[in-house]
Structure formats: C-alpha cells, structure tokens
Inverse folding.
C-alpha cells in the first residue's frame, strides 16, 4: 500500500488565512464582535489602547485586522508575530479555564441559550417543569465537549505521545510516504463527540510544512473520510534530531466541521503542547517512519492526547 502527502507548500499555504480556515457561524459572530469591541476601545478607552500598543512585541504585518490587545490574536496568531509577554497579557487568566479557549465562543453562543432555557422551563408547574432535563442535558454535553483537562506528559526521551483523544481505528503500514521518502506506519484515531477534542504535539519538534484541504464532511468512521473530508496536514521534524520526521493530520467529520490549528512553518512545539482542536467529532492521524519506531498501541485501544505513549524510537 502507498500513501503520499501534498507537495511542500510555501511558508504558509495561501488558503490558510486564519487558525480556523474553514470559518463557521460562531467564528463569524466572534469576528463581528471583535470589530465592535475594537471600535469601543478606540473610541472610549484610548489610554488602554496606547498602553497595550506600547507593551506589544513582534510585528502586526500579516494580521487581517488591527491588533489592539491579545484577544485580537485568537484567530490570526499564525499570520503575524505580534504578541505580549505573559505578565502584560490581561487575559492570560483564560488559559487557566478548564475549557478549550478556541471553543469559548461556541460554549457561550450554544450553551448560553440552553442554560437560559433550562432556568425558564424550571419555573413552569409540574409536570412541564421536567422538560428542563432536555436543554440541561444538551448544555451539559456542550460543556463536556469543550473541556480541557490537565494532562501528565511522559518524560521518556524516546516516547512519541498521542496527538488526540479517542480510540485507535487503524494501524496501517505504508510502502512509501513522500515526506519520509520511505516506508511509514499510519495510526488513525477516531474521536466521538464524547472525547476531548484538543490536539497535542507528539514530540518536541519544528513545523516544516503544512497543507489545508477544504472538503466534504463524511462520517469519520467512513474510510473515505480520510481522502474526501476537510483536513489540515502538518509535517514535523524533531528539533534536536532533524532527521527524525513525523506528520499529523486532523480530519473533519460528519458533525465536526471546524479544524483549529495555531501552528505555522518554522514554529517549535513541545511534546504534549496544545496546538489546536477539531470541533465536534472527528479523526486524527499520526504518521511515523515505519522502520524507526516500535508502535505500542493497538486497534480498539483508548488513548489520551499528550499522555498515552503511541510509539517509541528504536535504538
């Protein structure tokens, strides 16, 4: 069997104009809110704007809008180098929330009305008040989906950790994989709507190539989904041993239609570091050089991003 990855792109593919290149309704609403927020800040809080501009580091070139404070970087941090030091970021506290920061808008826009409806139905007399269980269950599911639990990252030097939560759906040997210029093994993970959907880096590595393909939204259990669905492919090489290469591919699903990836070519990630998510059920693949690793998972096994050891380097 053979497989290949798309030809190496320019530093950042032209069709990646956001960390969420597929867009979405909640995404559009959040961008609209950002425009209103920036107007308010420039009109009524000029001192704050000037202070944040003085503290900002890097370059805003490439950003699709004004960068007034760290909130403006949420969807375009892969397009520019602008940033604030942690001590200068007044919104750093959001990183400590037990929810995926990339899903906070969905959590508010989808979960907020359900929570309000739950309280309103609760004021009805019996037996109608018990209908609150329906929106309450839906609200609980949304909160559960966007959870972001703490993970313990293995310290074994040769360990390659899982890039996603879920169940191992396939382990397939490939006769040739272009990125490695040799044989490979592809490990596919199916993520149901009940899994944590945050992606994590399998190794301390540097991004050397990326590719984004718009596509369909077939059920992630369908083998055709790997070929026809929207996906983001990330080629990595280890920082300390660049000859070691690996690749991650995040694939959308029937319900999950939005892929988030904050990476850009040249960027380094630590093993277990969060780099994105797939919203609402999907598939993630890790491709490794076949003759250089020993796979330590099996089909049907449950895995956790950042903590389950997928494979180990030989020697």
């Amino acid at each position: 069997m053979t497989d290949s990855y798309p030809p190496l792109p320019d530093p950042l593919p032209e069709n990646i104009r956001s960390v969420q290149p597929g867009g979405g309704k909640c995404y559009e609403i959040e961008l609209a809110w950002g425009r209103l927020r920036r107007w308010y800040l420039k009109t009524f809080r000029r001192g704050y704007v000037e202070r944040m501009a003085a503290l900002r580091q890097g370059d805003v070139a490439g950003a699709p809008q004004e960068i007034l404070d760290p909130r403006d970087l949420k969807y375009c941090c892969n397009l520019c180098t602008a940033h604030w030091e942690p001590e200068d970021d007044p919104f750093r506290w959001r990183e400590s929330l037990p929810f995926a920061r990339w899903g906070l808008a969905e959590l508010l826009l989808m979960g907020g009305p359900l929570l309000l409806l739950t309280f309103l139905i609760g004021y009805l007399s019996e037996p109608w008040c018990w209908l609150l269980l329906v929106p309450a269950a839906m609200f609980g599911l949304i909160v559960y989906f966007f959870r972001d639990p703490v993970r313990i990252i293995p310290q074994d030097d040769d360990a390659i950790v899982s890039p996603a939560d879920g169940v191992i759906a396939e382990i397939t040997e490939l006769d040739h994989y272009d990125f490695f210029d040799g044989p490979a093994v592809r490990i596919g993970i199916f993520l149901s709507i009940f899994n944590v959907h945050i992606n994590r880096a399998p190794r301390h590595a540097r991004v050397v190539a990326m590719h984004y393909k718009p596509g369909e939204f077939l059920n992630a259990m369908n083998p055709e989904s790997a070929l026809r669905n929207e996906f983001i492919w990330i080629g990595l090489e280890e920082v300390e041993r660049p000859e070691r290469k690996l690749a991650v591919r995040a694939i959308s699903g029937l319900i999950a239609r939005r892929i988030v990836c904050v990476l850009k070519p040249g960027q380094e990630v630590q093993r277990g570091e969060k780099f994105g998510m797939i919203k609402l059920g999907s598939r993630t693949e890790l491709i490794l050089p076949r003759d250089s690793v020993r796979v330590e998972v099996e089909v049907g096994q449950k895995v956790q991003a950042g903590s389950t050891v997928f494979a180990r380097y030989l020697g």
